[in-house]
Amino acid sequence: MRVLLTGGAGFIGSHTAVALVEAGHEPVIVENFSNSKPMVIDRIEQICGVRPELHTVDVRDESALARVFDAAHPEAVIHFAGLKAVGESWDQPLEYYTHNLDATFALLKVMRDRGVFSLVFSSSATVYGDKAPVPYVETYEPLEAVSPYGQTKVMIERVLNDLARAESAWRFALLRYFNPVGAHPSGLIGEDPRDVPNNLTPFITQVAAGRRDALTIHGDDYPTKDGTGERDYLHVVDLAIGHVRALEALPSRAPSSHVWNLGTGHASSVREVLAAFERAVGREIPYVIGPRRAGDLPAFWADASKANAELGWTAERDLDDMARDAWAWQSTNPDGYAD
Q: Which residues are designated catalytic?
C-alpha cells in the first residue's frame, strides 16, 4: 500500500516510515521541515535500504498538497503534521488552533477530491483532560483537554467523527497515544527537539550528553509511589508498529471512526525513568527538585486492551529498552540532526 505520511520526517513519523517499509508498504513523506531535518530521509534510507518518496510541502497549502496526491497516488494517509508542544500552546494558542486545524481541513478536502478515504490520525492522551479516571478508556466522555494543544486534538477528533457520520466512504483510525520515548535501535533516528526539550526523556539524555547541567524534576510531593509524577511511557518503535496495525485493520472495518489507545497499560514515575537512564548511561545523572508545573496530573496511564483485542497490538519493549535506545541515539548524535 502507498501511504502518505504528513510530517513523516518527525520523531514518530520517521519511525513509522521505517515500520511501513518493514511491513511491505511504500511511505510517501510530506514535510515542510519546520520541526525536522532533511537528514532524516537519508537515515531512513540507511535503515531500510529504501529511500522514501519525499515532497517538501506545507500541508496547509491545499493546491500544493493536491499536486502531491496527483503525483504520488496514495491509497491511505497517516496524519502527523502539526504543532505539538503543550507548553508552547499556552503562549501561542491562535497559532496552534489555526495551524493544526487548517492543516487537517486542507488534507481532508484533498483526500475527498482525490477519492482517498482511509486516514490514521495522530491523536493524544491529552484529549482525556484532567477529570477522566485512570486507566483511560476510549469510551470516556466528555473529552475536554486542558491545553490548547490538546484541544486541537479534541476538535480534530470531532471533525473526523462528524465527517464519518455524514459521508459513509470514510474510515478513520484515531490513535490516542501516551508518552512516546526511545529511538530506533540502530541509533540513526531519534527525538531531536527544537530549543529546550518539553518532554522528560530528551531532557535527561541531553543532560547525560553534557548539553544541559541538570534535570529539573517538577514536583516530588504528588500522591504517587515516590512523590513524582507517573506516566505511561511507550517505546516509539512499538508506537510506530501500532500505526501500521491500525492502517492495515481499516479496510476490514466498517466505514466509521475507530478509536484506540496506544500505551503499555502501566505508569512509571519520573524517578523510575531517571533510574532506567542511569542504568543505560552507566552513571548518575544530576537533577534538582523544582516546583510542580501548572496543569500536570499526578498519574495517568492507558487501558490498551482494545488495541490488543482488535489490532493484535501490544507494547513489547520495556523502560530499559526505551532508555537504552534513546541513549544510543543521543550518545552517537550528541547534537541531534546537526546541520
A: 149
Residue 299 in domain:
no
Residue 35 neighbours by CB distance under 10 Å: 18
Q: What is the pLDDT of residues 155-204, one digit of tens each?
A: 999 999 999 999 999 999 999 999 999 999 999 999 998 878 888 999 99
Q: Is the peptide bond before 135 cis (omega within 30 degrees of 0)?
A: yes
DSSP β-ladder status, 230-231 and 268-269: antiparallel
Instruction: Answer whether 66's CB lies under 8 Å from 114's CB.
Output: yes
Q: Which amino acid is at 206?
A: Q
Which domain covers residue 60, as residue numbers?
Answer: 2-180+233-264+308-315
For residue 14, being part of any structural domain is answered with: yes
Euclidean distance between the first and the last CA atom of the chain, given in angstroms as a whole number? 33
Per the structure, how many domains does the chain have?
A: 1
Give the predicted TM-score (pTM) of the model: 0.97
CATH number, domain containing residue 37? 3.40.50.720
139: which 3 cell numbers?
469510551
Number of H helices and number of E strands within the chain? 11, 13
Cis status, amide bond into 142, omega within 30 of 0? yes
Is 113 part of any domain?
yes
How would you list the strands of the sheet with 26-31, edge to edge?
Answer: 53-56, 26-31, 2-6, 76-79, 118-124, 171-177, 257-262
User: Chain-centre distance of CA 14, in angstroms?
Assistant: 10
Residue 285 lies inside a defined structural domain of this protein: no
* Cα gap 195→148, rounded to integer Å: 20
**Residue 71, CB half-sphere, CA atoms under 13 Å: how many?**
14
Tens digits of residue pLDDT in 32-91: 999 999 999 999 999 999 999 999 999 999 999 999 999 999 999 999 999 998 889 999
Measured CA to CA, the distance from residue 99 to residue 60 in angstroms comes to 8
Alpha-carbon distance of 220 to 326, in angstroms, equals 24
User: 88 is written with which cell numbers?
Assistant: 508552547
Dist. CA 332–CA 103, nearest whole Å: 34
Checking if the pLDDT of 293 tops 90, the result is no
